[in-house]
Amino acid sequence: MKLRILISIIGIILFVSCKQEKEVYMFSTFREPADEGLYLAYSYDGYNWEDLGGSWLKPEIGEQKVMRDPSVVKGPDGTFHMVWTSSWRGDLGFGYASSTDLVKWSEQQFISVMDFDTSTVNVWAPELFYDDELDEYIIIWASTIPFKFEKGMEEERNNHRMYYTTTKDFTTFSDTKLYLDPGFSVIDCVIVKRKSSDYVLVLKDNTRPERNIKVAFGKTPLGTWENISEPFTDNFTEGPTVLKLDDKWLIYFDAYRKKTYDAVETSDFKTFTDISGKVQLPEGHKHGTIFKTNESILNQLIQKSEERKAKQ
């Protein structure tokens, strides 16, 4: 009887300890020319980011074997799922791997998604979103199929539209479908859930006059997307990722012409305030996604990072 009580008490202590463990923000990123693989940065406040270095996973798949635009989502079972751009051009799919601690990763897989049309030029910036209402993952990305859509000043091989697939287990995937055709070349989309039946899509208008970031609104994570806004960034910006912080949303993005990493703040996705002067990121940081993890995983990453430095 006493043993049972003791076991119960230990279980409660462990449960409370796990529940109270502090969460931290993690930023998946890469360094040009993207052949070294996954880099990571972390933050406690969402503004100031510390470099954890890399590579935490070196690219092994794809025609060019690069790892650009790493998108990471933590599933309900605690598993981290990551997808990435594996080649600038030529690949008809993207890379995928998973991890429970961000240190040890599964075998890398190449997920072919555009092989139904071999004229496809590229598969860029796959972005993961976990749909907690349907318990499935949505993966969206940009591809160009020449002469398929109307275009403006863009070349046929640079006239992107967004596509998607869904999966529950990263083993079986739904057929690829068109995700977004706004009537112009579009890349780098990010799905944001505010509440049920209230979603925002952050997107890059990739047309030659624009090349800036806008938002659209929908009732489901698959759209349809309406009321595309005016740009809230300057031209030559891309790779947005979104962080929820109390009652505000922070949108980070890569200002690639200026070679800076900037951010805006919004509470309604209609009015945006430039907070670039308030944020700090590691030198060379390139776009990926922000996600949450717990402090024990962070501490393990810090320890591994320090061990690496000691060996150099």
Automatic annotation (TrEMBL):
PROSITE patterns linked: PROKAR_LIPOPROTEIN
MF terms (GO), sorted A to Z: hydrolase activity
Organism listed in the record: Draconibacterium aestuarii
Keywords, ordered alphabetically: Hydrolase
Domain Arabinosidase BT-3657-like N-terminal: 24-121
Protein name (Swiss-Prot/TrEMBL): Glycoside hydrolase family 43 protein
Claim: Hydrolase is one of the keywords in the record: yes
Superkingdom of the organism of origin: Bacteria
Keyword Hydrolase: yes
PANTHER family, per database record: ARABINAN ENDO-1,5-ALPHA-L-ARABINOSIDASE (PTHR43301), ARABINAN ENDO-1,5-ALPHA-L-ARABINOSIDASE A-RELATED (PTHR43301:SF3)
